[in-house]
Amino acid sequence: MEEVRCRVRCSGHMHTVTLTESGALMLHDHPDLITERALVALGGKLPRCLAILEAWKQKDRAPLPPVLHPALNEAQKKTKERVMRNTFTDPLSVSFRTRAEERVKKIAEDLLQKCAYRRSQSRWAGGNHIACARVGEPHICGGSEQVRSENGKWTGTNSYVSATVPISWFTRVYRRGLAVVDGWFVLDVLAEDEKGFTVLAGRQGRGFEVNLWPAVITRSADGDWHLRWVSRGNSIVTVKKEGE
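Above: the chain's sequence. Below: its structure in token form.
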């Protein structure tokens, strides 16, 4: 699902609503939804943005801006396909943990392919780029391997990038729309404040090398997330402890 952003009139102002690639609806101009929902429960008027959020959750087409209708169609189609698959699959045959890890692995690999890391440009042999992911302690690396053409006359390289993400990556990173920021892959959120997030991400090194590196993600005036690399200090472990 592609990210969709639109502007809607809400409470007398133009507000921004974003549907992320993960299917989550973000209300940029409503930072305290709990308080706003409480006011509505006490008789206050439901803001347009909150009405859109509830309509998206309930798959109710009418209150949604027209730009979100194609995304709703896609979401409903995927729901039907999932129901059909589950109809013919014994849910007890595979553990929940295994199914969750497989889903996280698949999503992470798809997004790694979209990142801005250097790729092999070999023409006569190689030239492939491989992305793989697994679930575990955060880690990322990149590199290349030499290969030969089928006739053995030419040599080239294949590039690769491999990432290990925690099982919590799905909710802490992906569902927040932070998995890929400015072309870099984000593996974990270490801390959060009103300015943004402190994260671990994959930073490009020499050649095809990719290293685990701390960064800060903040939102710009246009509503987009942007990543800034920070000093590594003594070690990444020190940064992780500060964020725990």
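Residues 191 and 224 are 19 Å apart (CA to CA).
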